[in-house]
Each structure stands twice: as C-alpha cells, then as structure tokens.
Write a structure and sequence with these properties.
By secondary structure, this protein is an alpha/beta fold. The chain has 18 helices and 36 strands. A hairpin with a 5-residue loop joins strand 13 and strand 14. It is globular. About 50% of the residues are buried.
C-alpha cells in the first residue's frame, strides 16, 4: 500500500519547471522515471525528449564546446542542429530527439566524444530493402493531406516522420487557425487539426506510418535511406516520392548569439506547448513575424513574462491581430530596432537593443537593456528541401509540398499537400475529378502576405446586441461567418481576403459564438439592451494561469490604450469552445466599441543603457558557424582576400563542416557575401547525408544485446 502511494506521489508531483496548469493544454501525463545527469539522480516523464526533461529540471547548460569551451545549450529542438548533443548511455545523441527511459545515464558533453574501441569483430546483418508505391517524407499538414488523398484511392503509401507523433508543427500550436473553416479547419487550434488529420490516416488501411524514423539521404540509385526508431537501417525504393519536410529556423549573428538561453522560437514552442515545460521566466523575442508574435502569446499562456519584442522593419510582418494580442497583453513592441547583444557569462542574463537608422545601422544613444533569461530568435524560416533537390538531380518521380516548397501558413500547407497527392494520382493515370487550378488559387490566397492594416470602420449602431469587429487587415480568415446561427456575419468582398461585417438584417441573439471562434481574438460583443449609457461588453480571454471569475477586477485594454479597471459581470464558456472564456464587463458607451481585451502582465521598465557592442551590421566577434565556432570576422577576412567559393571558404575556416552540415551558417555566410558586395558566389557542395548517422548503421551492425 505504501509503495502504491509513493508511486502515485511521484506520478503527480510536479518536476521543478513542469507546467501543471495551462489555459489550453491538459496536464502532461506519463510515468515518472528516475535517471542520472552527471551523476545526480533526477526524475522525468518517460518518453519525453531528454532535452525537455533537463529543462523541466531547470538544467539548460548541456556541456561545453570543444573549440572554445563555451557553454552549450539547445538551439532548434527539432533535430536540425547538433547543439543539444549529450552522452546518453555511452553514446553521443541529440537530446531533443532521444526519448527518456528508466535508468538512463546522461552526461554533459565536454570536448569531442570518444570513439568506442572494439577488440572483437562486430556482427553485421543484411540491410533490408523495401519497395513502396509512394513514399512521403514528413508527417506535417502537407504530408498528412497528401497521404489522405492517396489513401482514399487505396494507393499503398509509406509515410515517414522523425517525431513521436504526427502533425509536424501543428502539435505546437495552441492558438486557433486562420483560413477557411470549410477547407482548412479555420477556427480550430493547431493541436486539434493535427489530431483530425492523424485520425483520418488511421482509417485508411493502405497508408503505413513510421514514426521516430529519420530519412538520412537520397541516393543516385533512386533509393532513400531511413534510420528507424530501433536503429535498423532500411533502404526504401519508391516509385513516387513526396518531400514534405517543412522548414528550419534561421539564425542571426550578434554578440552572445550562442549563449545558453538563445534559441529558436520553434524550440520554445516545443518545450512549452508539446512538453509543458516552463522553459523561462522572462523572454525577449527577436522578430515580429507570425512565428515571433505567436510565440509571445504562447509564453503568456504558460505564465512566462514577455519583456519585449524587437522588429527591424518599420512595422511587424505578422498578422496585425497577433500583434494586437501582444500589445494589449502588455508586451512592448519596438519596430525599427535590432538586437545588439545577448549578455551573460554562462547563460543569458539580459539583452540589449537599439533603434535603426534608414541605412539599417544602430543609432548610438538609443540602446535599451532588458533583464531576461531567454532570447527567442524568430527571424524567418528556411525550407528543408535538400531531399527534393537530390531526388530531382537523380531523376526520381518527385514532388514537394508545404514549407519544403515555400514558407507559408499551415493552412496553405494543407492545400499544397492535397494538390501534390492529386498530381501523383494523375501521374498514375487515376482521374480524381478535382479542379487543381481552383485548389492552387485557394493555396495562393492562403500564402498571401498580410497587407497594411486599414483604418477600422466604427459601426454606428447603439441598440440591441451585436458583434464589434477589431480586425483591420485583409487576411484569409472566415470562421466567424460559419458559426453565426442566424447567418448575420458576411465578408465585405467576394474573396476570403476581405473583412467581416454584421448585416443587422435580423436581431443578434448575443450567443457569443463569433467571439469565441475568432483566431485573432478580434471580435467583441456590445449589448445596449440593459442600459444604453453603460454597455455590457463581452471579450474573449485565453490567458493567465487562473480562470477569471465573476466579481474579479480586470484591466480593460483597447488595441492602442488602457481603458481602466472594471468588475467582471459574467463569465461564460461555450460548449463548442471550451478553452475560451467570454468575459463580460460594463463600460461607458464611449468606450464600449474600443475595448478589445484584458491586460495580463505589466513589464518592468528597462534598465540604464549599456555600452553599445557593435556598429556594423554583423559584429566581427559574433559566431556564424555554431558547430565549429567560426566568427563573422573570420569569414569576412577571407572574402576580402578574394574567396568567392563556398567550398574553398569551408576548407579554410571549417565553416559548415560541423555536425549540422551547414544548415544554419550557410545562410549567414551568404548574407556576409551580400554585405561585402559579392554577388557571384560559387555554391557549396551539399553533403550526401543530410543527418548525422552512426557509421555502423550502414553495415547493419547488431546491438550489444543481439550479439
């Protein structure tokens, strides 16, 4: 009995940085197991990525770099870099891709891992070769959509993904999606869409799925190498190949960019939303696109303070409704600013930013320094398209979809995956009856970049109850039109790229469905029926660790100003939208149509300006190649000596020769070439293998327990 109680206690006891309460996500379930890190006994959730488990135990430094002995932390948490490598049960493994097991012995990586010594011959086995009709690489929205199209025609499909579940980046998205409610599940959260698409595949017997299986290369004999979860290497020979491998995050070059605590926004979402780890206390975000804006919102949902966001352009490039959510949540946003440095000795302790002039140079005297423990880099994505390019070079029947083809929203990836599936069927001679041209037009709409916001139109009605729309940007989004029980919400134009409006053809019943479904939280409800001078305004809320209750005092915000403190008159949660609270407050009629949200956090004022760290676009001492610790100054020195060949530059500096194979530094080096005025650059030769693989795998070596 005592043993059962102890087991129950350990299963429910929160590990240091475990998120136990979240407004959207349920608590993380799983058996708590014991492991050691550098000899210290710790607890973690079985099956969770080792990197996430260490963060949950408040361990963020994973070792030191062999070149300069600087501290190492995570960067991508997506298997694309090797920065999180640890010695796990004697083997150097990526901790973001390795699942925790009972009794694991984990050690920080210091220096270069030692090669194992073998006194006896190692038994080997034959490598399995598998022929398949269609191979799909990637289980995100585009890969899943294509597999569904093919599976519905009973075409044999093998779908391979390197994660432990299907959905790709959808499994990190707790916000509701934009786009078309009819075509791409707009109004539903990414985590829900992932489950829908995965469940569709489970109903199709011709679709086989391999999870935790990594494609390592595409070879000239038209064979694809796959490393499966059990470390079996399998050669796949497909008739048709679809590459739906998504994207990897870009990096910036600035002083301190390799400190533990500087990492990608996608890595942050993996820790917080997939694994429910409170990965930080205070974060600063670099980049005002959708990825950065959404990551900030996710941080606030997890109880993490967002101390600021910096964007180099004069306005944020992401959706205005995402930006508005952050602003009215109390996050200061600095446009026409850049990051100068991440500051700290062994980890991030603060960040320094500065304003930019018209030539993109930092303006002396405008520096601001914020205390934080994490800097999120959200400056864009790069397509993971190397498998597609190799397959084309070798003359394979290959297609590409989703972010591997073009960076866009997940709604666009659903369309492009479906289109790729239809094209494969047509190549097989199977008539689908689908209008590809129409689908491609819809996909282009979903890919459209957000235009400048319009001046909001104020609805002059001041009687009854009706929705107030605070969206001012013509982006693809229509779920509010699909939920109104009286069909009173229409789009102002013929396209989904137009703004919604209330027709007032019949009285609104005040059900609140439009408020609850809106992905941008940009609809409120104004009710003049009780008192025309003091209007009951209903606002959506998905933030905070604790639910709002009737009688609470909340601070009401507009998109531009603070309105004031008001008592909550009513709180509703609709059955169809269980994670969105509808909070009603009574406001003076002059402010009823301005109110958009509830203030969640107040950010402390920034500290005194620190010394400016650089005046050039790239600091010479900043790291460009993270794997080999090659600086921007070293790269620039050789460019100025006449080197214009990426292969020659790699041979001289070792940039791109590290474990990640140049996935991060290649784009940064190209940027330096552009800054130096060099346009004609000889491209580098990509590695034949795109993922690090133990050499013994290719020989079919057996595990120790199989000998």
């Amino acid at each position: 009995m005592i043993r059962k109680l102890l087991i129950s206690y350990w299963r429910t006891k929160p590990i240091k940085k475990q998120i136990k309460e979240h407004p959207i996500l349920p608590p993380k379930e799983g058996r708590v197991v014991t492991f050691t890190f550098d000899g210290k006994e710790l607890q973690g959730i079985e099956g969770m990525a080792v990197a996430s488990v260490l963060f949950m135990n408040d361990i963020k430094v994973f070792g030191e770099h062999y070149v300069d002995h600087s501290p190492q932390g995570i960067f991508c948490a997506n298997g694309q870099c090797a920065q999180c490598t640890l010695i796990i049960d004697g083997k150097p493994l990526k901790s973001c891709m390795t699942a925790l097991k009972e009794g694991m012995r984990i050690e920080s990586l210091k220096g270069v891992p030692a090669l194992p010594s073998e006194d006896e011959p190692v038994p080997v086995s034959n490598i399995q070769t598998k022929e398949v009709e269609v191979l799909i690489i990637g289980g995100g929205p585009s890969g899943l959509s294509a597999a569904k199209v093919l599976g519905e025609k009973n075409i044999p499909v093998l779908l391979v993904d390197d994660k432990d579940r299907l959905g790709g980046k959808l499994v990190l998205q707790t916000h509701k999606f934009f786009g078309s409610a009819e075509d791409v599940y707009a109004g539903r959260r990414g985590i829900e869409i992932a489950k829908i698409l995965a469940e569709d595949l489970r109903q199709l017997p011709s679709v086989e799925v391999w999870l935790q299986s990594t494609v390592v290369g595409v070879f000239s004999d038209k064979i694809v190498g796959v490393l499966r979860e059990n470390e079996n290497y399998v050669l796949i020979k497909p008739k048709y190949l679809l590459v739906a491998t998504g994207a990897r995050e870009k990096m910036l070059t600035f002083k301190g960019n390799t400190l533990p605590g500087v990492y990608g926004a996608g890595a942050f979402q993996t820790l917080v939303n997939r694994d429910l780890v409170k990965a930080a206390e205070k974060i600063f975000i670099v980049g005002g696109g959708n990825v950065g804006l959404i990551a900030g919102y996710h941080a606030i949902q997890a109880g993490i303070q967002v101390v600021g966001l910096v964007e180099a352009l004069p306005r944020c490039g992401g959706y205005k409704v995402h930006e508005d959510k952050l602003r009215r949540s109390g996050v200061p946003i600095f446009t026409s600013h850049t990051i100068l440095s991440a500051n700290g000795t062994n980890k991030v302790e603060s960040v320094t930013i500065a304003a930019l002039d018209e030539n993109w140079h930092p303006i002396a005297g405008t520096e601001k320094t914020f205390e934080c423990d994490t800097v999120l880099i959200a400056v864009g994505l790069a397509s993971v398209d190397e498998f597609y390019q190799k397959a084309k070079d070798f003359g394979m029947e290959v297609w590409v979809a989703g972010d591997a083809d073009e960076i866009a929203e997940a709604s666009a990836a659903i369309f492009t995956g479906r289109i790729a599936g239809i094209k494969i069927l047509e190549t097989m001679g199977i008539d689908t009856g689908e209008n590809i041209e129409q689908l491609e037009q819809k996909a282009e709409i979903m890919k459209s970049r957000p235009p400048p916001p319009k001046t909001p139109t104020v609805f002059d009605l001041e009687e009854g109850v009706f929705p107030v729309f605070h969206c001012t940007q013509e982006i693809p989004c229509d779920p509010c039109t699909s939920v109104c029980p009286r069909d009173l919400i229409k789009m102002s134009g013929d396209s989904i790229l137009s703004l919604p409006y209330f027709t007032n053809e019949e009285p609104c019943i005040g059900c609140g469905r439009c408020v609850a479904v809106c992905p941008g939280l940009a609809i409120t409800l104004a009710d003049y029926r009780k008192d025309p001078d003091f209007v009951y305004v209903t606002l959506p809320s998905e933030l905070g660790e604790k639910r709002i209750k009737k009688g609470d005092i909340v601070h009401i915000m507009s998109n531009t100003t603070e309105i004031g403190d008001y008592k909550v008159e009513r709180v509703r949660i609709l059955k169809e939208f269980p994670k969105t609270e509808l909070v009603t407050v009574k406001l003076p009629k002059e402010q009823a149509k301005e109110a958009t949200g509830i203030l969640v956090q107040r950010v402390e004022s920034y500290s005194e300006p620190m010394e400016i760290y650089h005046k050039e676009a790239l600091a010479d001492e900043a790291i460009v190649c993270r794997c080999e610790r090659v600086t921007a100054g070293e790269i620039r020195k050789w460019i100025r000596r006449g080197i214009v060949d990426m292969n020659e530059l790699k041979a001289i500096t070792r940039a791109g020769m590290g474990a990640c194979g140049g996935k991060t530094c290649n784009l940064l080096i190209q940027r330096i070439f552009r800054e130096e005025g060099i346009k004609d650059v000889v491209p580098g030769t990509p590695r034949p293998l795109f993922v690090e693989v133990p050499l013994g795998i290719f020989a079919g070596t057996k595990k120790e327990e199989e000998k």
